[in-house]
Specification:
Blueprint (H helix, E strand, L loop, with lengths): L5 E4 L4 E5 L10 H7 L4 E5 L14 H14 L5 E6 L1 H12 L4 E7 L8 H14 L7 H11 L2 H6 L1 H11 L4 H11 L16 E6 L7 H10 L3 E6 L6 H4 L1 H16 L4
Parallel strand pairs: 2-3, 2-4, 4-5, 5-6, 6-7
Antiparallel strand pairs: 1-3
Helix pairs in contact: 1-11, 2-3, 5-7
Length: 261
């Protein structure tokens, strides 16, 4: 595979962070900065943010990409954290490659499938974008209201504008590929019991795209999971409530790795 774009900082037990749709590895800058004094933290970009954006792919392909990155960096095991699409990818990876993981951190994610109405809504917005070279202001506004919480929109307009402007640099076809990689994903609820890894499930109270009940249901189905609710944030809690997410991750990682870090 082509060498992916990634950030690799710190030393110690390895933590790998996987971003969500329309985002990129920089969404975890606060977490990388918080953890790098005790851990080797790697945040990487998925295909849509690389020169492989034209490929057709699904979540299994993204899981294989992640394992290929571990191989390239000669990493045997890690704790894998993923937000939304990154979390969707982490579940099949955990099922296919459990020997590569010490734990999971699933942020604003879910195990269930999307409903027909949810897929139809996504298809309608992607159709509006299909004749454009890059993401439009209208598409960015739709995404904003889905993934950024009401508190952040009200109290941090500069942060909201920063990400909207960043989204508008994305190629429309690359964004469509991201959505298509997961919007028809199967319901994995019945397979959660197979994932015995220690798992941290983080979900925000103001998540408008994946209601918090979906995160709780996933945590309930995992044999060794803990659930942390994030207040005053939406779907993108690592950028909206970075301190709270950093604390949750740090506590979880310290329990897994103990005095190793």
């Amino acid at each position: 595979m082509s060498k992916p774009h990634y950030t690799d900082r710190g030393s110690g037990p390895v933590v790998v962070l996987s971003h969500g749709t329309l985002m990129d590895r920089t969404m975890f800058d606060a977490q990388v900065g918080s953890l790098e004094d005790r851990y080797r933290v790697i945040a990487f970009d998925h295909r849509a943010r690389t020169d492989r954006w034209q490929d057709d792919y699904d979540l299994d392909d993204l899981a294989d990409d992640c394992v290929a990155l571990l191989d390239e960096l000669e990493i045997e095991r890690c704790v894998l954290g993923g937000l939304s699409m990154g979390g969707f990818m982490a579940l099949p990876l955990a099922l296919c490659y459990p020997e590569r993981l010490d734990g999971l951190m699933l942020i604003s994610s879910m195990a269930m499938a999307y409903s027909d109405s949810e897929r139809a809504d996504i298809d309608a917005h992607l159709a509006e974008l299909s004749h454009e070279e890059h993401v439009t202001e209208e598409f960015a506004e739709w995404e904003r209201d889905l993934v950024i919480g009401a508190t952040t929109q009200r109290e941090s307009p500069e942060l909201v504008r920063y990400w909207m402007d960043r989204w508008k640099t994305r190629r429309s076809k690359a964004v469509a590929g991201e959505f298509h990689s997961w919007m028809h994903k199967p319901d994995m609820t019945s397979r959660l019991a197979e994932i015995e890894l220690p798992t941290l499930v983080i979900h925000s109270i103001e998540d408008a795209v994946l209601p918090i009940e979906r995160g709780r249901a996933m945590a309930d189905g995992l044999p060794n999971a803990r659930f942390v609710a994030i207040e005053a944030a939406g779907h993108t809690s690592p950028v909206e409530a970075p301190d709270a997410v950093c604390v949750a991750m740090s506590n979880f990682l310290d329990e897994i790795y103990g005095g190793m870090a």
